[in-house]
Amino acid sequence: MNVANKPLMSAHHRNLVIVRAGDKSLHRGWGAGDPGCGFDLIVSYFGSDPSAFRLPHENRVDYKGGKWDGIHALLSQQPELLDRYRYVWLPDDDLEADRATIEAMFSNMRRLDLQVAQPALTLDSYYSHLPFLRCRSFEFRLIDRIELMAPCMSAGVVAKMLPLFRGSMSGFGLDYLWTRLAEDNHGTSAVFDALPVRHTRPVGTQLATTMLKSGRTPHEEYCQLASQYGFGEFFPLSYEAVDRKGRRWRSQPMIGLRMVTDYLLDRKAFRQANKLMELLWRLLRRQYSKPVDLSQIVLKP
Fold this sequence. Notes:
By secondary structure, the protein is an alpha/beta fold. The protein has eight helices and eleven strands.
């Protein structure tokens, strides 16, 4: 790994963004170079252009490979970063976002004392899991799973997860673990409906190409973790929420019904609408019948 020979971070910032970036990365739209920006940025570059992403605020480092092994390489070489920052956002490089949204996400992490969270996705995003799309009724939802695309974590959670990042290019299976590391995980993970970002490319296209060259597959990485920790189905459940009028919702079935209603009202905005009705029925059924499991998982050495 090649690291710039200069101090990476501003001493007064407590928020860090690390993006694993290719040549088409959208991080320059995130406002990290704006005067007074409230977060620092490290661009962990997996491309081959020696001149790419050399602006002073980009703090480029080089590492070939996947997203999570690249993050492991950076934080293993610079462990002091996890002492310096309270929260770390680990977004994919194909997200359209802006500075105000990112700063508000970090602010909400502190205000709600969260350990893991993510911005919701706009309805015209490419997505893997319907419950992470923005619901117009809610400010945020407490949720039992946070996906791989754009997790924001406390430095403590990143430190606990870091050994598992080492051997993972895809991250598949990591998202079953990072919301369940404490004795009490209730109320510590959320999706921010009022702070959506847009996912601009089909899910997994860059990952599939990178992993094909390595001779590995996301499924193999998932199976390795699943055999250790006994995973079930990945389906995020929203078990509490705060709506746009500040009212707290505590009924999981009613939250599910409101989500389905919102998605139906906005169905014309969906990019991936071909299976929407099937997905809505599945969401409603899970919200009514599936219990939330936030019991502690103890990571193995």
